[in-house]
Design goal:
520 residues, alpha/beta, Rossmann fold, GMP Synthetase, Chain A, domain 3, 4-stranded mixed sheet, 18 helices, 34% helix
Length: 520
């Protein structure tokens, strides 16, 4: 049965998972291990505390914290109380967080104490932002400034709220009600909040779990940040639908990933290609037992074919899949199917998920804007009909702003963001396509391409390259190799070597930073 029809809402999914998987392990967070039954109890207690704090159905509740058990419990607790979850990016500075809090009119904020040496509380206070709607801040720690509450104190505030009251509130939620507002990563301009409903979330991530082959008892290392759809929905929600074990990892560190895979017998590891690349290239890789790993789901415009082959060949990963999504389409648009050949998995993002449509605004086989229609498309940007109308047309097609090509089997290959395209002497050059080609070079570990002004051709490509460890690759080598492997207008005219590419917290390369470096 479809996820949205079986459970209807996220609170009902949480309750069903607690009943169905009871004593099975649900979350491993450091030394803390809890069962599904315990997770259900903790979520109900957090929901009771939200009711005790005056949270009303439809109120926005924000969470600004890294991947931890507390994030899972506070977020699901708020949603169980009928609130709309607003996840905040852990890379945000205080003023950026304040913008989203103000824009969403959040009434309650759960915030981590200190993370990566940064006090989020201090950062928010330094921003000195006017937040008239924010009534309470709960610090997920043992201590909190005077005007804020500790997590323990907040939970105690729900002790007088009965289980029946929590159940009534949860059961009153309509599947068509918003479950969360995901603010777009905003690599350009101000972030906008995509509104997604309970039914959409459950339908999409039941489908994701089905296509990926996620199973009961799978042990899933969640490195993708929870504030991102890939972490929260393909992570927490997907695990709840199947009874898999969640092992949240707060910071991406390849040594910790290796240690976790070995110690926790991790079987599922979704993440960006850079995560899997750094795993394969780690000098200590063979010292860790990675044999339990069986499922990898990755996604980006560029997934080197060699990466897919190495994951299968060197690590024995049975299933490697690629997918494509964006916040405005519930984070999932297309996905490869198990059994697809390595070339399809590496060069495309698969086919439209069931009961949705994907088309490209161009002649067959030609690049054009990717359009999406179906149950995955957001109900709109939060309180912004003007911006919504710019991207969702009268026929319900979401204009993604991504450029892609559809093959005869319906597989989508993303070639770029429309705004990233540059024109070399009259030819459209798509950075992602050039990056895909450069990624085939044996000495290139990571690469990003931008267009820079050129007196003769209008614009030309410049490549920012991360070399593989021990490589002595030069700019001339890259250019000479490119001339052999790609059309002349695609060949980068400049090459700069960098230790790493600038990425936002969602793992996307921040091309704006590279452009300012190129013109600075």
């Amino acid at each position: 049965m479809r996820g949205d029809l079986e459970w209807g809402t996220i609170p009902r999914l949480v309750r069903a998972a607690a009943e169905r998987h009871g004593e099975r392990e649900a979350v491993v967070d450091g030394r803390t291990r809890i069962s599904y039954a315990e997770l259900g109890e903790r979520v109900e207690r957090a929901a009771a505390a939200c009711l005790g704090a005056g949270v009303e159905p439809g109120d926005r509740v924000a969470v600004w914290a890294p991947n931890t058990l507390d994030w899972i419990v506070s977020a699901l607790g708020a949603v169980t109380a009928g609130a709309v979850l607003v996840p905040l990016n852990t890379r945000f500075k205080g003023s950026e967080a304040a913008y989203v809090l103000r824009r969403s009119r959040a009434r309650l904020l759960f915030v981590t104490g200190t993370f990566l040496g940064t006090s989020y509380v201090a950062s928010l206070r330094r921003a000195e932002a006017e937040l008239p709607d924010l009534e309470q801040v709960v610090v997920l720690a043992d201590s909190a400034p005077e005007e804020y509450r500790t997590w323990k104190d907040f939970l105690a505030g729900g002790d007088a709220v009965g289980a029946d009251e929590v159940r009534r509130r949860a059961d009153a939620i309509d599947p068509s009600a918003p479950s969360d507002i995901v603010f777009t990563s905003g690599t350009t301009g101000r972030p906008k909040g995509a509104v997604i409903t309970h039914a959409q979330t459950l339908r999409c991530y039941d489908v994701w779990s089905e296509l990926a082959g996620l199973r009961e008892g799978d042990r899933y290392l969640i490195v993708n940040p929870f504030f991102h759809t890939f972490g929260y929905k393909a992570g927490i929600i997907a695990c709840l639908t199947r009874g898999a074990v969640m092992v949240p990892q707060p910071v991406f560190n390849v040594d910790t990933v290796l240690a976790n895979i070995a110690a926790e017998r991790i079987s599922v590891l979704p993440g960006p290609p850079t995560l899997h690349q750094s795993l394969l290239d780690h000098p200590q890789r063979d010292a860790h037992d990675l044999s339990a790993l069986r499922l990898v789901v990755t996604g980006a415009a560029v997934v080197p074919l060699r990466l897919v082959e190495r994951l299968r060949g060197e690590l024995g990963v049975g299933t490697v899949l690629t997918a494509y999504g964006l916040s405005e389409a519930s984070g999932i648009v297309t996905m490869c199917r198990r059994g697809d050949d390595p070339a399809t998995i590496a060069t495309t993002s698969g086919r439209a998920i069931p009961d949705t449509e994907v088309r490209v605004d161009a002649e067959p086989g030609e690049p054009g804007e990717v359009l999406v229609r179906g149950h995955n498309v957001m109900s709109g940007y939060f309180e912004d009909p003007e911006e919504t109308a710019k991207v969702v047309d009268a026929d319900g097609w979401l204009h993604t702003g991504d450029v892609g090509v559809l093959d005869e089997r319906g597989n989508l290959r993303i070639t770029d963001r429309i705004k990233d395209m540059f024109i070399v002497g009259g030819f459209n050059a798509y950075p992602a396509e050039i990056e895909q080609l450069l990624g085939l070079h044996p000495d290139v570990a990571d690469v990003a391409v931008i267009g820079v002004p050129d007196g003769r051709l209008g614009e030309v490509g410049r490549a920012y390259v991360v070399r593989r460890p021990g490589s002595t690759l030069t700019a001339d080598d890259v250019i000479a190799w490119s001339r052999r492997e790609m059309a002349n207008y695609k060949v980068p005219r400049g090459v700069e070597f960098v230790a790493e590419l600038p990425r936002n917290a969602s793992g996307k390369v921040v091309k704006g930073e590279l452009r300012s470096r190129a013109t600075g």
